[in-house]
Amino acid sequence: MKKWFILSFLLLFAVTGADARTKATKKSAQSREEEPPYRAYLVVEASTGKVLEGRQAHLKWPPASITKLMVALLVMEKVSAGEARLDDRVSVSAKASKMGGSQVYLKEGETFSLGDLMKAMLVASANDAAYAMAEFIAGSEEPFIRMMNDKAKALGMLDSTFRSVHGLPPSKGEEEDITSCHDLALLSRAVLNYPKILEWTSIRQDAFRDGLFILNNHNKLLFKMPGADGLKTGYYRKAGYNVVATAEKKDLRLIAVILGSPTAKTRDAVAVEKLNANFALYEMVQVVNKGDLIDRDVLLPQGEVPQIRGIASHAFAYPVPSKSRHLLTSEIRLPEAMEGEIKENQKLGEVVIMFDKEEVGKVDIVAPRAVPKAGSLTILRRKLGLGS
User: pTM for this structure?
Assistant: First the structure.
């Protein structure tokens, strides 16, 4: 009897233990299945910066070669300001020629145009090209990195600290570049102000060094998704596979930032999924066009003419879910009258745009022309109701 009791107990223990182990295994597998194939992501509309969806947008993460977007932005700002030209010749230093990782094998003493080096950096992610341009713009790497961090602060990239011009993994004793999905979206929106950058990032394959070297774009979304035309990928072991992807359909341009995916294939699949899902959900609604005449008079008691109608200073469009267009409204805010003379393009009031009763934008209403102050006799006649 005693033997039977012990055997029964052992059998029950074995069955219970096996059941517990099975449940634990299932729970572990379920947990792995639920774990997303990235560390963080964000999707925004490019012109307004409206966040469409995301996860851990402020998670600080090494961007790897996406760092080069900041280099591209600073170079194009110098070009735009007339402080550099894309046909300027850049001499390759010894240090630039020794950059590892992705490169176009620049040799010390060679010279290339600034434009060719930008193309090499943005298409083939060439670290040597990035370093050579940093030296050309700022004299050496250190002051250029300071420029990168100053620009990051100016853009509101508060999660970011740049410590290199290329995004390579740090050497022993050094710290890595750090940013976030939120900050890379801000950087990407600034980059998109320069169409030439988008022209480079949309190149699938091109020649370098008079055709002796072929540049192949690391961003395979250009081949996988219609409308994709940028911007940059990045990878090293600790950072995982990262991408800042942008695509345009009709009037809607989206930016998707994916950080920390386990494989390039997974990263690209997530980017395509997120972009396509939001293209299907949202549409860009044009609320105001630049130069639209505002159908409301502002009285000018002292003006050469008795009233004026303003125009919209700039256009404004906003992304909304297709089924929610009716929630997008606008309100004209204008004073009844304005004293004194009116200058051309002087602000008269504003159009306030709201989505679901929340303010999402403003457009200034400005004077389409100057209105000088009227003579005293004209002003008196108006006060007496005798017309102008």
Answer: 0.87
